[in-house]
Amino acid sequence: MNRWLLLLALVSLPGVAADVVIKPSAASTTRSGYDRGVSLNAQATSMTLGDAVYLGLRNNPAIRSAYLQRVAQKFDLRVAEDVFKPKLTLNSYYRSTRGSTDNARNANVAPATSLLGEYGTRLSMAWTQQLNNADRAGRYRSDGLDLAIISRCCVAPAGTPPPRRCACRACRSRPTA
């Protein structure tokens, strides 16, 4: 019997709740009786024009997005400019060999640098020093300097005919329209 009463009470709750009328014009109070409402007229704040502009711009999503886009553009510019900075590489090795008739030691140092100009000209310079020292064969030293200037003769894009005066191998092998 108690189960039936409980089931009847649960089924009738939505009907009872529908009879409750909420009046929004009534003052809302807590259980302690204090008013929960806040009047904005009672809170007057004075601020400067700069403060008002700051508050308006502080959480503006369009301005924040533009700022982040500008940061990304600055990074892209630094990456693009990095192509034109000189590159330095250093290659070296040291080998020691021990055989039945002779012992030898070989050392090689080869620093190289490369610079790309804004018109596509590449300047490269490398220096090589090789030292060989063997007990029976004696000492051997070799120095070398490589200098290369690679220049593009024309800046005609692919698919366009080369300039008339250009006679480089790349322009001669390019099909003309």
Topology:
Layout: H1 2-18, H2 49-58, H3 61-82, E1 87-98, E2 103-116, E3 122-134, E4 138-150, H4 169-173
Antiparallel strand pairs: 1-2, 2-3, 3-4
Task: Give an overview of the whole structure.
- There is one protein chain.
- With 177 residues, the chain is α+β, with helices and mostly antiparallel strands.
- Among the domains are: 51-82; 87-173, no CATH class.
- The protein is 31% helix and 29% strand.
- It is built from 4 helices and 4 strands.
- Strands 1-2-3-4 form a 4-stranded antiparallel β-sheet, with no helix packed on it.
Fraction in helix:
25-40%
* Adjacency order of strands in the biggest sheet: 1-2-3-4
- In total, how many beta strands? 4
> What sequence of helices (H) and strands (E) makes up the elements?
HHHEEEEH
Provide a concise account of the structure shown.
With 177 residues, this protein is of the alpha+beta class. Helices cover 31% and strands 29% of the residues.
Characteristic key phrases:
single chain, 177 residues, alpha+beta, four-stranded antiparallel beta sheet, 4 helices, 4 strands, 29% strand, elongated
